[in-house]
Amino acid sequence: MDQFDVIVIGGGPAGYHAAIRAAQLGLKTACVDAWTGADGKAALGGTCLNVGCIPSKALLDSSKQFWNLTQHFDVHGITTKDAAIDVKTMIGRKDKIVKQFTGGVAMLFKGNKITSFLGTGKLLQGRQVEITAPDGGKQTIAGTNVVIATGSAPIELPFAKFDGKHIVDNAGALAFDAVPKRLGVIGAGVIGLELGSVWRRLGSEVTIIEALPDFLGAADADVAKVALKELNKQGLKIELGAKLSKAEIKKNEVHLTYAGKDGEKQLVVDKLLVAVGRRAYTDGLLGDGTGVKLDERGRVVVDEHCWTGAEGVWAVGDCVRGPMLAHKGFEEGIMVAELIAGKAGHVNLDTIPWVIYTEPEIAWVGQTEKQLKDAGIPYKTGSFPFAAIGRAVAMNEPAGMVKMIAHAETDRILGVHLVGANVSELVAECVVAMEFKGSSEDLARIVHAHPTLSEAVHEAALAVDKRAIHKMN
């Protein structure tokens, strides 16, 4: 039986980061992953690289280019006639990018001398891992340490089961061979909004049905309000407080029944994307007597350092508590590898940034105003609109704002909430400030280049103390 210092079960963001860092630290490392590409060969990178973060951003960029061409280029004096999108070419570009990055992970594994096994991994007693290959063959390897990084899977509704053609998950919505005339989306979360935006920009009539009464309840209310207004302008129809009860496929259409604010409603679409969330993927993961426990949601139970409580067994990424975000998994994988090697390691869940890559983008870090109010924490806020930022206006992207929240007594930054162009990049400055326990005054006194979008963060920090320069306080 092959013996390793570290065995990682799962080659997604959390898993491959754990494997690479462990190998960098001189540990004999193996990674077990079952994902294969269209060619049947191993495709490391998990959901993120194969059917998540990277392919969705490729399609978002393609659809943004087309949207700008048909909707916004005229203000620059650029005119076009009979603009068209070749969906096959767009999907091909996305697939090429995916292959580039999954192949890149394979090269990193080879360069770091990581042994890769294609198949599903099952944890047995004594930190042994049983590997089931695609052809059903089995083998067992053993490790001094095992890192569980099995990720997550889309949640399927019992009355709207995936068929891969009419009713699809995120993977299906990334591979349409034509623009659906009518697209229904269940769930106004990250996946629903991003993929709904892709196909709306290309001409689809998109209706998003969200069961919760508030739009983006996890985001700050002020930012969510601005985002909803802008998405509605783009033609996304978003129905809140609407609960789907039935989805029937009839004559190549999907007939939906849902309860809205005004009673029962009917909707007919050509494609239905179900994006109501994801669940930890731990099916068949644990053998008897491993000492590893699952919680009521199927997640692996871990402590603040991702240790399961069983000797030498750790778990990271989407299959444990905390936000299901690739970058959170990155850092947990690295942390665990460093802890195994006897080094220090820590991940601060309180300063993990969230990003939704719609147009405009939505991002935040830290607490919302409502959370602070409910907790009775004294706070003060400052906000600034992109419409008063020269660079944003010059880019023809003036929509959005930056809102900063600081402690009323200490001025320590408690949260920053952004909606606008490129806020996925701007939020990083705010994360750094919060990690170093910075105050709004710290950001207010830092010189920001002009003209840049980052000036909105600077002015929001100034506005916390009611001294923003380019707006009335």
UniProtKB/TrEMBL annotation:
What general EC class does the enzyme of this chain belong to?
A: oxidoreductase
Q: Which cofactor does it need?
A: FAD
* Record flagged with keyword Flavoprotein: yes
Q: Name one GO molecular function term.
A: dihydrolipoyl dehydrogenase (NADH) activity
As for subcellular location, the record says: Cytoplasm
Ranges of residues in domain Pyridine nucleotide-disulphide oxidoreductase dimerisation: 352-461
TM ranges are none
Q: Please state the Enzyme Commission number of this protein.
A: 1.8.1.4
Q: What keywords were assigned to this record? A: Cytoplasm, Disulfide bond, FAD, Flavoprotein, NAD, Oxidoreductase, Redox-active center
Q: Which intervals hold domain FAD/NAD(P)-binding?
A: 4-333
Question: SUPFAM superfamilies, per this entry?
Answer: FAD/NAD(P)-binding domain, FAD/NAD-linked reductases, dimerisation (C-terminal) domain
The UniProt catalytic activity note for this protein reads: N(6)-[(R)-dihydrolipoyl]-L-lysyl-[protein] + NAD(+) = N(6)-[(R)-lipoyl]-L-lysyl-[protein] + NADH + H(+)
| Bound cofactor: record note | Binds 1 FAD per subunit.
Q: Tell me which family the UniProt entry assigns to this protein.
A: Belongs to the class-I pyridine nucleotide-disulfide oxidoreductase family.
Miscellaneous remark of the record: The active site is a redox-active disulfide bond.
**What PANTHER family does the entry give?**
DIHYDROLIPOYL DEHYDROGENASE, DISULFIDE OXIDOREDUCTASE
Protein name, UniProt field: Dihydrolipoyl dehydrogenase
Q: Which taxonomic lineage does the organism of this UniProt entry have?
A: Bacteria, Pseudomonadati, Pseudomonadota, Gammaproteobacteria, Lysobacterales
